[in-house]
Design a protein that fits this description.
By secondary structure, the protein is mainly β. It has one domain (about 40-180). The chain is built from two helices and eleven strands; from the N terminus they run ββββββαβββββα. The chain has a seven-stranded mixed sheet. The protein has a four-stranded antiparallel sheet with strand order 5-6-10-9, covered by helices on one side.
Length: about 190
């Protein structure tokens, strides 16, 4: 009878054990039909959303009555979510960063930027693919920087830049469009006025 050698540095794995964080699906390669960029940003006062109904990773309803203030944007604005995970600490969280550019300097927008900088709003964004996302669902978003710039050359930005950051236990959720647009305020600044 042959004997199977044993080695003290080998570990035998039990294939029958599964972890609580088991994967549930793969992903196929999508068509090349997506585009980058943000189309619209909406701001609501912190604490006005109420409980969120989340179905399959999408917010389909909010129990609160937020007033969403709409800002039309184009170019140079983006949303990036960074996954922060530490095996040593056993933690995972998501840093949601919105970089926002508002073209054209005007007094009314500057006054609203002062309010945003002191507040901790919830932020909904619409991208050019028709997706809506909610930034700062639980903890709101903070302004972490920005500028009011006149530009130097004729083609330079004359406007505002802001950076918002939110730390959450989940990435920015997808949102059913009507959850945001049905409660959007009609009040909007016209910088050309």
């Amino acid at each position: 009878m042959s004997q199977v050698p044993t080695y003290p540095f080998l570990i035998t794995l039990n294939p029958k054990k599964t972890m609580a964080c088991s994967l549930t699906s793969g992903r196929s390669l999508p068509c090349k039909s997506a585009v980058g960029g943000l189309k619209t940003v909406y701001f609501a006062d912190y604490g006005t959303l109420g409980a969120a109904t989340i179905v399959a990773g999408e917010i389909t309803a909010l129990a609160g009555t937020p007033d969403w203030f709409k800002y039309d944007i184009k170019g140079n604005s983006s949303l990036e979510t960074t996954v922060n995970s530490s095996r040593e600490n056993g933690t995972t969280f998501y840093e949601q960063t919105l970089s926002l550019t508002l073209t054209f300097l005007d007094k009314a927008t500057q006054e609203q930027i002062k309010l945003l900088a002191h507040a901790r709003p919830h932020i909904a964004i619409e991208d050019y693919n028709g997706n809506f996302f909610l930034v700062g669902l639980e903890h709101g978003a903070e302004v972490t920087g920005g500028s009011i710039v006149t530009g130097a050359a004729m083609g330079d930005l004359s406007g505002f830049t802001l950076t918002f950051a939110a730390q959450e236990t989940a990435p920015a959720y997808f949102v059913t469009a009507a959850v945001i647009t049905d409660d959007a305020s009609a009040t909007q600044i016209d910088p050309d006025a």
